[in-house]
Structure formats: structure tokens, C-alpha cells
Specification:
By secondary structure, this protein is mainly α. It has one domain. The chain has twelve helices and no strands.
């Protein structure tokens, strides 16, 4: 029993380390870069006039640390499941060559987008919202530290993707780590409060299939819209994209850098 606990503890620390490292690098990095170093130059790209108080950031960091502890605990479970033979597709995928590694990353990102959209909509059901998703929406005006500020139920529901997807899709070894890297980088930027996506001449995002900061910020302001986190197609297919999204985005994206035009207020 002691050997089992020691083994589990080592695995837990090993699982926590990359998740915590990614979170610290990108949340603090985005905060320092956008909110401190470049703040005078990016004021025209700020989605809202108000800036979240320091206390909110500290609370978000605390709950994010709890979420990462949950992720690491689930990671221990996955290691034992792997040892028990629950992930045979990974061994098959490793024999398909380096090209399949990149296919695995792409498939993992697309699959995560679908999982998040439908899990997110489920958590907004009034019967589940208070238990699963209320913590995240306490950050009505989000910050980079909001990225993992979850209730326990939401953290488990979201990490569930990492558990389930490799059971049904042959993910090459190590590819899920890159999916999670993509997730935290984009997740942090979506909560950054600054619109960085370049606009086309017609005012639409240069890459209109990618969720922008404005898109996700509208969800925090008006929770019944914009459930997607990475690609806009699910919201458009399901009719859940905010009807004023493109107008709001264009107003932010077309402001010249350094201008003092008042930021767009959330309704």
C-alpha cells in the first residue's frame, strides 16, 4: 500500500508540473505583456473600459490552482488506466509514423472544441449552472487568470475529454500535451480583455472561424450566447452566436493603436 501511494504521489507531481508550468508562463506572460508593458499602446484594443481589480485576479489564481490539482489527480487515474490496458489505440497510433502525430494534434483540437461547446451548453442548464459553472462566471469581466477558475464539477467535466478521447481516437504518444498547450495559450488570450485578431476591410476577423477575445468576452457579459472557445462554427450551426458579435468586434478591431476612443461597454 505504501509503495502504491508513493508511486501515485510521484505520478501526481509529474502530471501537475507541465500543467502548472504552462499556466504560469502564459497567464503571467499575457498579463505582464498586455496589461503592463503594452497597456499604453493597446488601449484602443481593450474590449471594456473597466479593468478587473487585483482581488479578482488573486481569487482566480487560487481557484485555478485547485483546478490544476484536479487535473493532476485525474492524470494519476489515467496512468493506472493505461497500465491496465484502457488505451490500446495509442500503441497502434505510434506505429503510423510522424505524420500521424500532427494528425493527432489537429484531431485533438477539433475534438476538444466540440467537447467544450456541448459541455459548456450543458453547464448553462439552470439545473447545473450553480454547481458546475458559477465560479467561472463570477469573473464577469475576465482576466488572463480566469482561464482555469472553475468549480470542481467544471474542472472534472473538461478534463474528462483528455480521459475519453484517446479511448476512441488513436492519439500518438505526446500529442495530447500539444493539444493542451494550444488550449491554455488560446484560453488565456480569450480572457485577456484585449482584441488582437486583425480585421479585414469589411470589419470581420481575418480568421473568422476562430473565436476572438470579443466573441468570448460577450459570453462573460451575456451568458446565453457564444459557448464556443476555439472555433466559431458550432455557435453558427446551432444559432448561439451573439447577434451583435461582428458589429462589436469591428468596433474594437478597427480602432487605431494608441487612440483614446472609449472602450466598448458590455451590455
Amino acid at each position: 500500500m505504501d509503495a502504491f501511494l508513493i508511486d501515485a504521489g510521484r505520478i501526481w507531481l509529474r502530471e501537475l508540473e507541465p500543467t502548472l508550468t504552462r499556466y504560469v508562463i502564459f497567464t503571467f506572460g499575457v498579463w505582464l505583456l498586455l496589461w503592463v508593458a503594452l497597456r499604453p499602446f493597446l488601449r484602443a484594443r481593450k474590449v471594456r473600459e473597466a479593468t478587473p481589480p487585483a482581488r479578482q485576479l488573486a481569487v482566480e489564481l487560487m481557484f485555478s490552482l485547485r483546478s490544476m490539482a484536479i487535473f493532476a489527480t485525474v492524470g494519476v487515474l489515467m496512468v493506472f488506466m493505461y497500465r491496465a490496458g484502457f488505451y490500446p489505440l495509442g500503441r497502434i497510433a505510434d506505429g503510423w509514423g510522424p505524420a500521424w502525430f500532427w494528425v493527432s494534434i489537429l484531431a485533438g483540437i477539433v475534438g476538444l472544441d466540440a467537447w467544450f461547446y456541448w459541455a459548456h451548453r450543458l453547464m448553462h442548464d439552470p439545473r447545473l449552472f450553480r454547481r458546475f459553472h458559477r465560479r467561472h462566471h463570477r469573473s464577469n469581466n475576465p482576466s488572463p487568470f480566469t482561464a482555469y477558475s472553475f468549480d470542481v464539477g467544471e474542472a472534472l467535466l473538461l478534463i474528462g475529454y483528455v480521459v475519453v478521447f484517446p479511448m476512441v481516437f488513436p492519439m500518438a504518444s505526446g500529442s495530447m500535451q500539444w493539444v493542451m498547450l494550444y488550449q491554455i495559450v488560446t484560453n488565456t488570450l480569450l480572457h485577456s480583455g484585449y482584441e488582437l485578431m486583425p480585421a479585414r476591410r469589411d470589419g470581420r476577423p481575418m480568421l473568422d472561424f476562430i473565436v476572438t477575445t470579443t466573441h468570448h468576452d460577450l459570453h462573460h457579459a451575456q451568458a446565453g450566447w457564444n459557448y464556443a472557445a476555439w472555433f466559431t462554427w458550432w455557435d453558427r450551426w446551432m444559432g448561439t452566436e451573439h447577434p451583435q458579435y461582428r458589429q462589436r468586434y469591428a468596433e474594437v478591431a478597427w480602432r487605431p493603436f494608441g487612440s483614446r476612443v472609449p472602450a466598448l461597454a458590455a451590455e
